Amino acid sequence: MSIVETPSPNFSERQLPVTMIVLHYTGMESAEAAIARLTDPNAEVSAHYLIDEDGTVHRLVPEDKRAWHAGQSHWRGITDVNSASIGIELVNPGHEFGYRDFPEAQIDALIVLMQDIKERHGITRGNIVGHSDIAPTRKQDPGELFPWGKLARLRLAMPRPTKNLIDPLWSDAGFLLALERFGYEVTDKLAAVVAFQRRFRPELIDGEIDGECRCLLLALLLPKPQGDD
Q1: What does pTM read for this prediction?
Q2: Contact indicator for 27, 89 with CB cutoff of 8 Å
Q3: Is residue 1 very low, low, confident or very high in pLDDT (cuts 50, 70, 90)?
Q4: pLDDT digits over 157-168, tens only?
Q5: Can 208 be counted among the known catalytic residues?
Q6: Helix or strand (DSSP H, E) at 130
Q7: pLDDT in tens, 28-53
Q8: Model pLDDT for residues 163-192, shown as the tens digit of each residue
Q9: How far is 138 from 83, CA to CA, in rounded Å?
């Protein structure tokens, strides 16, 4: 895989080993605008990689450094997600500027990059997340159009459970406890449920805890999720 070196000055030293991959969309009107912001010292944001819609991969920050992509976030007890993760930005205008499907060339490049990162760092599927998973009150990227299913079939993400689904009939409070156990920050109930749905049931994002949500979450908590992978 060919990588274009596009250095950003926006990084610091890691305080934790790499155990996560966090996926983002740029949410800007063009790749050029996104690269300009991610390399602007005044912006104080960055990521390790950016992938353009044509599949071009830019390396902005070395993997051994702490890029500034996650902001205030939380996943499975980790609050300094920047220190524990590799951040990958996908060029896409996002919900503000005309959210659209991610091109095949872009996803193909992402898959090759992720396979390499996952193997080198020993990252588990449960720690490959979207920005909305780790910051549900602030973010919605990479969003409901992102092809998580394609990544799951390559064991690059948790699959959406599809088999032997059973409703545990949890109360809403019980569902939130289970969601927290899975990894989400649940202080804001609505935001947490929406983030879960955006990831695992993108066709209906209504913030309501229903039987399907309970079935999906229970299956995800099992040792071997019964999904399409």
Answers
A1: 0.96
A2: no
A3: confident
A4: 999 999 989 999
A5: no
A6: strand 128-130
A7: 999 999 999 999 999 999 999 999 99
A8: 989 999 999 999 999 999 999 999 999 999
A9: 19
CA pair distance 226, 175, nearest whole angstrom: 19
- Average pLDDT for residues 14-29, to the nearest whole number? 98
- DSSP H/E element including 51: strand 49-51
Q: Could you give the 3-state DSSP secondary structure of residue 48?
A: coil
Within 8 A by CB and 6+ apart from 93, the residues are: 26, 27, 28, 29, 99, 100
The DSSP secondary structure of 67-105, one letter per residue, reads ES-S-S--BTTBS-HHHHEEEEEE---HHHH---PPPHH
Neighbours of 77 (CB within 10 A): 7
Radius of gyration, alpha carbons of the chain: 17
What is the C-alpha separation between 171 and 81, in angstroms, rounded? 30
- Burial pattern 179-188, b for ≥16 Cβ within 10 A else e, equals bbebbbbbee
- Of 5, 29, 63, 89, which one is the catalytic site residue? 89
**CA 100/CA 90 separation, integer angstroms:** 12
